[in-house]
Amino acid sequence: MRLDWFDRLPVNIPTIILILAAVLLVARVAIHRSRFVPPAWRTALIETLDASLFAAVLSLVIITFVVQAFFIPSGSMEPTLQIGDRILVGKFSYRIGKIKRGDIIVFHYPLGPAPVRDFVKRVMALPGETVELREGLVLINRKPLSELYPTALPGGDRACTSTYGPQKVPAGQLFVLGDNRCNSEDSRFFGFVPTGRIVGRALFIYWPVPRVGLIR
Question: Which of these is catalytic: 76, 93, 162, 184?
């Protein structure tokens, strides 16, 4: 599933926030030095600009290091994530913990320069493991994988009869799949995902209201 809600913007969100903060700072300096603004107005405007600057810096810190929102535009992770879902991704998750099989991660597209496009998939195989798909069934080190998280059918969507591998996952990389195996561009097509391209772990659906909850 491709996450491209801001792909068409000429700059990324942190850059926009930095530009806004710079504009606010210039405005604050100009008002502080202006002789044409009454003192009472000057104080009120400077206080407002200070609050706006603080909010901009806080937003930048949160988006850069803590959490970021994404929009789900396609059905490759159905039924877990549905078209139109809005999710929060924890960027700190793998700074304090390890990547686990079954985690849903957001990552930069592994082919080409990053960041170009962001995808969301589920981690299926970890570094050093041998992964194989046999008629839709996932095998890790030649053993069938028991997939307890939501999929179209237990053990993967065997209706697609996907076949892949066996392939050993290189060090520092992951093998990922979409839950909707019949309609997912994932490691079967673009290969392994370097851990350095991970944005974070998908944690929470915050919109629409009926679907609010933790992502599993």
Answer: 76
100 catalytic residue (yes or no): no
d(CA 5, CA 9): 9
Whether 184 sits among the annotated catalytic residues: the reply is no
Whether 117 and 5 have beta carbons less than 8 Å apart is answered as no
pLDDT per residue as tens digits for the range 44-87: 899 999 898 888 888 777 776 778 888 999 999 988 999 999 99
Tell me the pTM: 0.72
The tens digit of pLDDT for each residue in 166-213 reads 999 999 999 999 988 888 899 999 999 999 999 999 999 988 889 999
DSSP 170-214: PTTEEEEE-SSGGG--SHHHH--EEGGGEEEEEEEEEESGGG-EE
d(CA 24, CA 157): 52
Catalytic residue among 121, 162, 184, 187: 121
Q: Contact, 164 vs 131, CB < 8 A?
A: yes
Residue type, 200: G
